[in-house]
Structure prediction request, 320 residues.
Amino acid sequence: MAYDRPIMNLFDLEAFASVVETGSVVAASARLHLSQSAITRRIQNVESELNIPLLRRDTRPLQPTKAGLEIYEHARRVLSSMNDLRSAFAEGAELSGEFRFGITRELGDLTLTYPIDRLQSEYPRLKLQAIAEWSNELLKRVNLRQLDVAVALLPEEIVLPEHVAGDVISTDLFLVIASKKISFKRTCTLKDLSVHPWIVNPAGCGGRELLRGTLSGNRLPFKIGVEAYGVELKLALVAKGLGLGLVHPKILQASPFRKEVRVISVSDFRPRISTWVLHSPQVGRLSGPITSLRETLKRRLSLTASAGRNDASGVELARN
Prediction:
């Protein structure tokens, strides 16, 4: 049978997936070492074969259409399976290619370098791409297959999207903190705290969303004093007395500002949040690197917690 148009193939799917992941034809051509016209032609092959538009060309960065997003998810699974097949039959070959992972900004400064060191040692031919981003954005990127794995702070009971799997490596009680310059009762309520402003991370932070939702559910105001783009900046502002903060205990234990703040005991607010390792349900050849990442972070978080408990001069509870 003769065809009057090019037939879609794996190279076409790879070009389309790269455009979705990078957001532009220019970036995809640089990634695949192809001309921009070649990338465009390959995407047109897929659209012609399926007879549907896959990209919204009026947006920057380029975004997939609803059908394009569904095709992209299928394409990532196909391309991943092909990489697994090549790896399985490449005798003695070391794992190579890209490994894209992200860590929530709330933990990034504390933990990001440790898994990179181990991954480089265990998989020297693997090209690592690491980012620090807020948890909700990381979840979105894993769901879109823009990341192979991500470490995010999310509620333990969260229902993950259909195309995302995950493991909880720790669950911690977030701490409400204030400057030692401010006097508080030994035990406060959320209503007591609602008169104070909060120093918060930008929208998308799991802790911020948890705090906002709890205050809203109790019909209490959520007063933002400062949006701080950085965990240490947030802690520095709390230490100066500019507002209250909500912080992961392991971050506080490792912070140089821990001696300048105190933990506020809140009788009706005990926010628990979990550290999740998120990935595709089908990890294939990347199961080894994902396990390495998970175990390194689990050990690192455990060591940080132990160090904090042994620091007797650290964080104090509020006193009258």
Summary: The longest helix spans residues 287-310. The mean pLDDT is 83.
